[in-house]
Design brief:
alpha/beta; Beta-Lactamase; Alpha-Beta Plaits; 4 domains; 21 strands; binds ligand C2E; binds calcium ion
């Protein structure tokens, strides 16, 4: 664009040039024209010269007017245009300025600028709200006015970097304000540059994210708490099973294979303590045992509570079994001291199974499984002891699980049936009862109840198995009654877990209803152990059962720890002397005296006594001589099938 100066020079030159040309043409031609018209008369010549002068002035004035009008008019228009443009741009700037000012002042985010010395030049109301100080009090002051001295120092350091040309964007800053409040900001900062590129301060925008941050922290805290709960047992505060598995997975994935021993500790008879003294007492005992374990093992030992009364302890770097033998000896000895809780001295023992990593197993799951098998062995060894894992335990455990799975199917596949063994009156030799004994034929092979009943009890399957036996037994008894067979009562074995189950009475009623069996046809054989768990409750339950018409006998009598005190309160009709006392009765004085005592006890309590497993005439004679009431054994009959039993009844 041409500048205004050069334009006016051009216009002036144009006017002068035109004047020059006109003047030149005038001088050159006007005298010749005057001469032509004067015809030599000097007076006329003077007059014409005079007119020529006037005419020149007239023409040049007119020309001057035309030219001036043209150029000056253009210049004026341009000038006024320029003025109005300037005004418009000024207005625009002013408008922009107000807009910026409005934005800055109404922004909830803090917008600020500081000079080279860190003094605030701009501090909007958003910034004021952030630190709770009115903006006009901040202008001219540094961050020392707004924040704790430590925070101000930190900000100063960042500002120094920015003054050196740096820029920060969405930088998270945590500061303490001058009033002592913890605040979190998102900050964007950069240098203020002049037109020549010189830094003259710092600009910044920041946002208060304290609430966001606090929420975030609350979530993190909640997560941590949740994580703690998911990994710890809340009663003992020990790591729980989840932690244990994670720990084991970590330890077993370590490439260096650091050896360690896994101790699987299961308390003996904890359930009984819980039932007798209550759960609060049981909980306290668990806490005490935890403390004892923590005192016994080195402080960094991993001790976890992996189940109700189960603890798993990891002992690192133990290749030497002797050290573990000593530790176990010490642990078991210590545990044998009573715990004093609520004025009661309570005794508890533990059975411990031990596996060694990596020699026994290489995975978490396998280590635990094998330790469980070893613990099971410790229980079988009579509890209150420990056992290292041995390969044969796995086979046994596998056998147990196979049987349990097959038994589940056996119930549905009708592989179970009842056999019957007669009970004989010693005087009359008449059949006074039949015991129903369960038989399981799987793939033409007979599996002994001595094998599968304990497994069924352990796995809980005994509830289904027991219901099948009760149903089948009652059905048979009702059927035989209809046929008019007289054999006394049908004795049905009821296991402890079945009897103590909350639904037992209901099941019994339902079966009686469904089979139309008169309870007076049935005798229930229970074991001493089912009474021991909770004698008071058992007396009440058995009273109800007896009132329904059932009779009750105690099976395997003499092997448990029946105490006379409650025996006399129980509604028992018959004591069955265990097979182990009958065996060798003719030449074992101890068995003789036990059998004599049991018979005398039965008589004294108004019950009858039956001897199981009588095989020989000598055994029979001894029992007869000592006033036994009845006999069950191979001497008379082995257990027989339903058909064989019916044949027997028909013969009699
Ligand atoms: P138990 O109730 O003590 O049953 C007596 C066991 O002794 C039966 O073994 C029987 O066959 C056996 N026996 C009877 N007389 C003689 C004899 O003269 N000599 C020898 N050596 N043994 C004799 P079985 O049928 O193998 O039952 C074993 C155990 O399995 C039973 O002992 C009982 O505890 C349990 N059982 C059997 N059937 C059932 C059932 O239906 N329910 C429950 N809960 N347990 C059952
Ligand atoms: Ca029995
Ligand atoms: Ca028995």
């Amino acid at each position: 664009m041409e500048s205004k100066d050069s334009q006016s020079v051009k216009s002036a030159l144009k006017i002068s040039a035109l004047y020059l040309i006109f003047g030149f043409v005038w001088i050159y031609f006007s005298d010749s024209v005057v001469e032509l018209f004067s015809s030599g008369n000097p007076h006329q010549l003077t007059l014409l010269q005079h007119y020529k002068g006037w005419f020149f002035i007239l023409i040049t004035t007119f020309l001057l007017f035309l030219l001036m009008h043209r150029f000056l008019h253009k210049g004026f228009i341009e000038y006024t245009q320029r003025i109005s443009e300037q005004k418009a741009s000024h207005d625009r700037l002013a408008q922009q300025d107000t807009l910026l000012r409005t934005i800055v002042n109404s922004s909830p985010d803090a917008i600020f600028a500081k000079d080279m010395e860190g003094r605030y030049m701009l501090f909007n109301s958003g910034a004021g709200e952030l630190v709770n100080i009115s903006p006009e009090n901040v202008i001219g002051h540094t961050d020392k006015l707004l924040f704790s001295s430590e925070a101000a120092k930190k900000i100063q350091e960042i500002d120094r970097l920015i003054l050196a040309g740096g820029v920060i964007q969405n930088h998270e800053e945590d500061v303490i304000t001058a009033s002592g409040k913890q605040k979190y900001f998102w900050v964007t900062k950069g240098p203020l540059l002049s037109e020549t590129g010189k830094t003259f301060g710092i600009f910044g925008i920041s946002r208060d994210i304290t609430t966001i941050k606090e929420n975030e922290q609350a979530i993190i805290k909640a997560k941590e708490h949740f994580d703690y709960m998911a990994h710890h047992d809340l009663l003992t505060e020990l790591p729980n099973r989840t932690s244990l598995i994670e720990k084991l997975q970590h330890q077993t994935s370590d490439i260096e294979n650091h050896p360690f021993a896994l101790l699987f500790l299961d308390l003996d008879g904890f359930k009984e303590i819980n039932d007798s003294y209550g759960h609060r007492f049981g909980d306290e005992l668990l806490v005490r045992i935890t403390q004892l374990l923590q005192e016994l093992f080195p402080p960094d030992t991993f001790i976890s509570r992996s189940g109700g009364d189960e603890f798993v302890i990891l002992l690192s770097c133990h290749k030497d079994k002797n050290i573990i033998h000593n530790t176990m000896f010490h642990l078991i000895n210590t545990l044998n001291n009573p715990f004093h809780i609520d004025e009661i001295d309570v005794y508890i023992t533990a059975s411990i199974g031990i596996t060694m990593y990596p020699s026994d197993a290489s995975s978490a799951e396998e280590l635990l499984q094998k330790a469980d098998a070893a613990m099971y062995n410790a229980k079988n060894m009579g509890r209150n002891t420990y056992s290292f894992y041995d390969l044969q335990f796995t086979e046994k455990a596998l056998h147990r699980t196979t049987i349990a799975t097959q038994l589940k199917k056996a119930i549905q596949n009708h592989e179970l049936e009842l056999y019957f063994q007669p009970q004989i009156d010693i005087q009359t030799e008449n059949i006074i009862g039949m015991e129903a004994l369960l038989r399981w034929t799987s793939f033409e092979e007979m599996i002994s109840p001595a094998v599968f009943i304990p497994i069924a009890e352990e796995s809980g399957l005994i509830l289904q198995v027991g219901e099948f036996v009760l149903m089948q037994g009652c059905k048979t008894a009702a059927q035989w009654a209809k046929k008019g067979f007289s054999y006394g009562r049908l004795a049905i074995n009821v296991s402890a877990r079945q009897l103590t189950h909350i639904d037992f009475l209901m099941t019994l009623d339902r079966i009686i209803q469904e089979t139309q069996c008169d309870p007076t046809f049935i005798e229930l054989e229970i074991t001493e152990s089912s009474i021991l768990e909770n004698p008071e409750q058992m007396i009440a339950l058995l009273d109800i059962i007896q009132a329904k018409g059932f009779s009750i006998s105690i099976d395997d009598f003499g092997t448990g720890y029946s105490s006379l005190s409650y025996l006399k309160n129980l509604p028992i009709d018959k004591l069955k002397i265990d097979i182990s006392f009958v065996r060798n009765i003719t030449h074992e004085a101890k068995n003789q005296s036990i059998v004599k005592t049991i018979i005398a006890l039965a008589k004294g309590l108004g019950m009858t006594a039956l001897a199981e497993g009588v095989e020989t005439f000598e055994e029979l004679n001894f029992l007869r001589a000592n006033n036994i009431d009845s006999i069950q054994g191979y001497y008379y009959y082995k257990p027989m099938s339903f058909e064989k039993a019916e044949e027997l009844f028909l013969k009699h």
